[in-house]
Each structure stands twice: as C-alpha cells, then as structure tokens.
C-alpha cells in the first residue's frame, strides 16, 4: 500500500463518518458502533501514513511500515 492508497482510504473513511454524523439525531446503536469503528480505522490509517513518512524522511524503506493493532494506536496521545 502506497501513500496515495492510504490517503484514499482515509478520505473514504472520513466521507462515511461525515455522512453518519449528519444524521446524528437518528443514530441507533448500529450507527454509533459504526462511527466508533470508523474512528479506530482512521487512527490506524493516520498512524500508518505517519510511519511511512517518518521512514522515508530518515532514509528507510516506507514499505516496511505496518498496521499497528487498534489497542496500540488508540493509546497514543494526540
């Protein structure tokens, strides 16, 4: 997966999240669960993108960046 693929995935996730949030008054349990899932996937995608950019900046192979588990990414301070 290259940087453009990751950015495309982020864009798709953000679009879906925005559509769900536009109908906030109508949210049931399923919608709230999907929003939480989208947020976790977004955190993972942003983390992967940051890893790739850091590796590239320091002369390493950005292709060596890997998806980190949700439990690890969710623990980061923003």
Descriptive tags:
DUF2630 family protein; Uncharacterised_Rv0898c; mainly alpha; 78 residues; elongated
Give a verbal description of the structure.
The chain is mainly alpha-helical and about 80 residues long. It has one domain. It is about 70% helix and about 0% strand. It has three helices and no strands. The model has no long low-confidence stretch (mean pLDDT about 90).
Q: Determine the strand fraction and express it as a percent band.
A: under 5%
- Compressed to H and E, one letter per element, the order equals HHH
Radius of gyration: 15 Å
What global shape is seen? elongated
- Average pLDDT works out at 90
The unreliable regions are: none
Main beta-sheet annotation: none
Concise synopsis of the structure shown:
The protein has one domain (3-64).
What does the secondary structure layout of this molecule look like, with pairings?
Blueprint: H1 3-22, H2 29-57, H3 70-73
């Amino acid at each position: 997966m290259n940087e453009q693929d990751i950015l495309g995935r982020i864009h798709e996730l953000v679009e879906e999240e925005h559509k769900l949030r536009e109908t906030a008054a109508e949210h049931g349990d399923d919608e709230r669960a999907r929003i939480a899932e989208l947020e976790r996937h977004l955190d993972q995608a942003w983390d992967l993108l940051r890893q790739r950019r850091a590796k590239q900046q320091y002369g390493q192979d950005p292709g060596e960046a890997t998806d980190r588990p949700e439990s690890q990414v969710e623990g980061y301070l923003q």
